[in-house]
Amino acid sequence: MEQRDDRSEVADGVHLVLGAGPVGRAVAEHLAGLDAKVRVVTRSGGGPDGPGIERVAADLADPEQRERLASGVAVVYACAQPEYHRWPEEFPALQDAMLGLATAADAVYVAMENTYMYPPTAGPLIEDLPYTATTRKGHVRAVLAQQVLEAHEQGRVRTVSGRASDFFGPQVTGSSVGDRFFPPILAGKSVSVLGDPGALHTYTYVPDIARGLVRLGAEPAAWGRAWHLPSVPAVSTRAFAEAAYAAAGTIGRVKTVPVLALRALGLVVPPVREMIEMRYEFESDFVVDDSAYRTAFGDEPTPLADALAATVAWYRAHP
Questions:
Q1: Which pLDDT tens digit goes with each residue over 89-110?
Q2: Which residues contact 215 (CB under 8 A, 6 or more apart)?
Q3: d(CA 11, CA 217)
């Protein structure tokens, strides 16, 4: 699908990508494709290795290192996060550090967020729903999201938030449709999923997330609020899996993971234990409305068949 050329809209100066997980990597690679000056920051100095991408090792908790990183920065993309089971203990301090860096640089702060701050909702999720989630991680997300908005409202730093649903794509492993989903499908085996496979669910393709975050950082009219990033139209998880089997050229059965099995696995795998409280998102329709973003900026999500073909190709290349 043809997308408009963003090169003329990318700000001069350094585009600082914090974190090199699937989203951070995709943001850096998208920016490099637009000839932007890209600097990726992680504790280890890792991240994508390509033309136009500089990798830096730094500890964001260190004020002196943050001050050095701030020099010449135009946009900060906050794509870093703690381990899934360490959010309450570590995420607030990490976001404080990332916001502080953007403030010191007088840069635009682009926050990568998910939808955990919203309560269970009968109907599509829209951006102005109240942040009244009662789950442990939902409460953390609500607090963080409010801080980002308040930083802008108080004039401390220009901010904008991009929100995605459960994501998939190349390099995505830690997801409900990640490394426990695609390898069985490639092997033609049964795949186990959370909740009701027949319920509608919104999934977001990581390259679309990256493109959306870069767009938000470049559009002054977008700042000061949250946007749902372009996502594949909601389908049932069963239909999503069947489309993935078709992309892989295999056939298999879709099964539901019993809660007891999740609890047992969670005893030894903390991230799995953390998934249990979010299971409600898969037990009934969970549809994220991205129409505000698409109306404002004209970008459309990658067609599901194309997105799954690229994802399957990546998993085949990384068995």
A1: 999 999 999 999 999 999 999 9
A2: 6, 9, 222, 297, 299
A3: 9
